[in-house]
Specification:
The structure holds two protein chains of two kinds. Chain A has no helices and twelve strands. By secondary structure, chain A is mostly beta strands. In chain A, strands 2, 5, 6, 10, 11 and 12 form a six-stranded mixed sheet that branches. In chain B, strands 2, 4, 5, 6, 9, 10 and 11 form a seven-stranded mixed sheet that branches.
């Protein structure tokens, strides 16, 4: 079975400071990892994904994520947070073989203070 | 940029009534999905659909749920007899491919279902 843990329900950061939203995963075999963002009253928007290759993945809106196989983590990062980044962030994982259905985490609410 | 569109955005229904949620996936996509998100909880997979049949479904997707692709563009989720616990945001999604190369799934903006 595959699973995702987002250990923080909420992350608070001041505008201009770096942000990190944590994600760890469990999957059989190699993982495909995804980050999505959900703004209030909107659907999930794809941010970035890791399939293979460089462990540092760059995505939309200046976000990036680092795949760490030994720690089974895929933390989302941004060097300088904006108030407009405030949203709900979901990490998802699926195994590279078998079911292609990703499993989502519970989501982390990011609040960026002016 | 192509989008997944869903209707209605919000529906209130009485317990026991049938509900149909509609979706128009991205036009060249072949795989379609329904997920749901109960308020404050994680996004849960319901069902995937490919080549006019269900390819995978979760334990949540029991006999009261059904999906259909009635024409070349729409993809619907029917809940036969709604229960209070069906109140959730229902997301339709689509992807160009299924199994290969870490397909990206694109989501619609959701249909918020309230059962009273």
């Amino acid at each position: 079975a595959q699973s995702v843990a987002q250990p923080e329900d909420q992350v608070n950061v001041a505008e201009g400071n770096p942000l990190t939203v944590k994600c760890t995963y469990s999957v059989s075999g190699n993982p495909y990892l995804f980050w999505y963002v959900q703004y209030p009253n909107r659907g999930l928007q794809f941010l970035l994904k890791y399939i293979t290759g460089d462990n540092l993945v760059k995505g939309s809106y200046g976000f990036e994520a680092e795949f760490n196989k030994s720690q089974t983590s895929f933390h989302l990062k941004k060097p300088s947070a904006l108030v407009s980044d405030s949203a709900l962030y979901f990490c998802a994982v699926r195994a590279s073989g078998g079911s292609y259905i990703p499993t989502f985490g519970r989501g982390t609410s990011l609040i960026v203070h002016p | 940029e192509p989008e997944v569109t869903q209707t209605p955005s919000h529906q209130v229904t009485q317990m026991g009534q049938e509900v149909i949620l509609r979706c128009v996936p991205i036009s060249n996509h072949l795989y379609f999905y329904w997920y749901r998100q109960i308020l404050g909880q994680k996004v849960e997979f319901l069902v995937s659909f490919y080549n006019n049949e269900i390819s995978e479904k979760s334990e949540i997707f029991d006999d009261q749920f059904s999906v259909e692709r009635p024409d070349g563009s729409n993809f619907t989720l029917k809940i036969r007899s709604t229960k209070l616990e069906d109140s959730a945001m229902y997301f339709c999604a689509s992807s160009a491919t299924g199994t290969a190369s870490g397909n990206t799934i694109y989501f619609g903006e959701g249909s918020w279902l309230t059962v009273v």
